[in-house]
Design brief:
heterodimer, A: 257 residues, alpha/beta, Elongation Factor Tu (Ef-tu), domain 3, Rossmann fold, Dihydroorotate dehydrogenase B (pyrk subunit), domain 3, seven-stranded antiparallel sheet, 6 helices, 16 strands, B: 300 residues, TIM Barrel
């Protein structure tokens, strides 16, 4: 898939939570093809302490408005600067990077899409994509508390949505792996979120022999498989998360031991 | 814009540094990679190497530390699987060669010597991220000389030797490798450094220490290029923190015949194209007919 470096215009930047913002970017030309699970690398200007680009998951591609959505968790100086972008600002973006989630062959397959915290980001685009292809995905969104549940209103249009919060303020109390719906049998589970969450999901999926893909977010420099910094141990040795991932089938990862 | 490094003819003085540009093809969507003066591909060893554990990288002020540890699939895999895909790139493809002993350096160089379309090697005696070999050889004149001597016996084409800045006097090492028949020296490799996560009270890298690169190292690199230029007769290739044409011209004025762009490829994958254009424009503005006219012309 051809990669591009684009100067994109900030159409809107909405602070949807004290720690998260939703950045919508547009271009004059039609946005290139992008698949669910892929990511972009954003060049962060005007932040002296930020040197490298920031890898950000594709949250949604709105073909009607020709907009790319990035859901950003404000963690350090780079993402803090991104939260300050104003409509009309131009930012430089490399896209689309990495592989993508697998799309099952059978439209009747039962699919569970799990997003924990900002890990909901790739699940929105994946859910929309699957729905368009005739699938009927189920979503399980996890967060610390009610106010930390992100974009749940948007997920409803693509399938049933279940929620867990660690303090029980919305949905079931506990982790995603504690939720009733998670105990159901699925043909395919997709997960993105904190590593301990993904490992717990993977362990259960592995035991129940459910096909499972997870999206990793190792620290990256180049984003295109050139520097070999973001490696993950796999059955095929150390591989770059940026170019051979970020999506991995759990069978390929060395998480079982 | 052309320059010569030993017998190597380069269409311009701008190359991309080993470990920052993959095998070149990773960047082909973004730019015409054949416009470069040379592409120095990922460090290669005779045996495959898995490299160091994660985390291998941390961002620092105006740069980054890495501890990749020469992950590569080995010289024979390179010859059979990677070389066919890159041999027809219309510029100098140079292989960075590393080893863990004098013998393995020579073995690796010998395998690469058999590849017709690889126009030169860069012998890496300066990797700070492997326990054995690498920088061990590059920090003494004697160690550096012994590697170069062994490689020279088996490698007839252009041999560039990449020097470590982690030494007391880099000119001594440069003179030692020149004495054993190196055609050129490239400098600097990364500076040994470290970073600590204070919340966790743990090092940021799995290897504790790693190699520092990026604009933060440029003044050090520039000083060393200038010193080495005045110590040896062979051409010097300058690198270390180059982000734009002005940085590149600084290195050339200090004595570099060619330059390499490394870490900044990660921030702007097309930076090398811009640097080529910028050097050309600089020469035109100052009335130089050839880029060679600016090499080492620093007025002091």
């Amino acid at each position: 898939m051809k990669k591009y470096i684009l100067d994109m215009m900030v159409n809107s930047n909405c602070r949807i939570h004290k720690n998260y913002c939703l950045l919508k970017l547009g271009t004059i030309d039609v946005l290139p093809e992008m698949l669910p699970g892929q990511f972009v690398e954003v060049k962060v200007d005007h932040s002296p302490s930020t040197f490298l680009r920031r890898p950000i998951s594709i949250n949604f591609v709105d073909r009607d408005t020709n907009e790319l959505w990035l859901l950003i968790q404000i963690v350090g100086d780079g993402t803090k600067q991104m939260a300050e972008y104003k409509p009309g600002d131009i930012i430089n973006v490399e896209l689309p990077l990495g592989n993508s989630f697998s799309i099952p062959g059978n439209r009747n397959d039962s699919l569970l899409l799990i997003g924990g915290g900002v890990g909901v980001a790739p699940m929105l685009y994946l859910g929309a994509f699957l729905r368009k292809q005739g699938f009927n995905p189920t979503f399980l969104l996890g967060a610390r508390s009610q106010e930390d549940v992100l974009q749940s209103d948007l997920f409803h249009q693509y399938g049933e949505v279940y929620i867990t919060t660690e303090n029980g303020s919305l949905g079931e109390k506990g982790f995603v792996t504690d939720h009733t719906i998670f105990q159901n049998s699925f043909d395919f589970i997709y997960a993105c979120g904190p590593k301990p969450m993904m490992m717990a999901v993977a362990k259960s999926a592995f035991q129940r022999n459910i096909v499972c893909e997870v999206s990793l977010e190792n620290k990256m420099a180049c984003g295109i498989g050139a520097c070999l910094c973001c490696i993950e141990k796999t059955t095929e040795g150390n591989v770059c998360v940026c170019s051979e991932g970020p999506v991995f089938n759990i069978k390929k990862l060395k998480w079982q031991n | 814009m052309n320059v010569n490094i030993g017998n190597l003819e380069c269409k311009n003085p701008v190359m991309t540094a080993s470990g920052t540009f993959g095998y070149g093809v990773e960047y082909a969507d973004f730019m015409d990679i054949s416009c470069l003066g040379g592409i120095i591909v990922k460090g290669t060893t005779i045996q495959p190497r898995e490299g160091n554990d994660y985390p291998r990288m941390v961002e620092t002020s105006s740069g980054m530390l890495n501890a990749v540890g020469l992950q590569n699939k080995g010289a024979r895999y390179f010859s059979e699987h990677i070389y066919p895909a890159i041999k027809d790139i219309d510029t100098n493809v140079i292989v960075n060669v590393s080893g863990s002993s004098i013998e393995t350096y020579a073995e690796c160089a010998e395998v690469i010597a058999s590849l017709d379309h690889i126009s030169a090697i860069e012998v890496n005696i300066s990797c700070p991220n492997v326990k054995q070999g690498g920088m061990t050889f590059g920090v003494t004149s004697c160690g550096a000389a012994s590697v170069v001597k062994a490689v020279r016996k088996v490698y007839p084409k252009t041999m560039i030797v990449k020097l470590s800045p982690n030494v007391t006097d880099i000119t001594e090492i440069a003179k030692a490798v020149e004495g054993e028949g190196a055609d050129s020296v490239s400098l600097i490799n990364t500076l040994l450094g470290m970073a600590i996560n204070v919340e966790k009270r743990k090092p940021e890298l799995s290897t504790i220490t790693g190699g520092l690169s990026g604009p933060c190292v440029k003044p050090v690199a520039l000083r060393m290029v200038w010193q080495v230029f005045h110590s040896v007769k062979i051409p010097v290739i300058g690198l270390g923190g180059i982000c734009n044409w002005k940085d590149a011209v600084e290195f050339m004025l200090a004595g570099a015949t060619a330059i390499q762009i490394g870490t900044y490829n990660f921030i702007d994958p097309t930076v090398s194209v811009k640097v080529i254009a910028g050097i050309d424009d600089y020469c035109n503005r100052h009335g130089f007919k050839s880029v060679k006219e600016i090499i080492g012309t620093l007025e002091v």
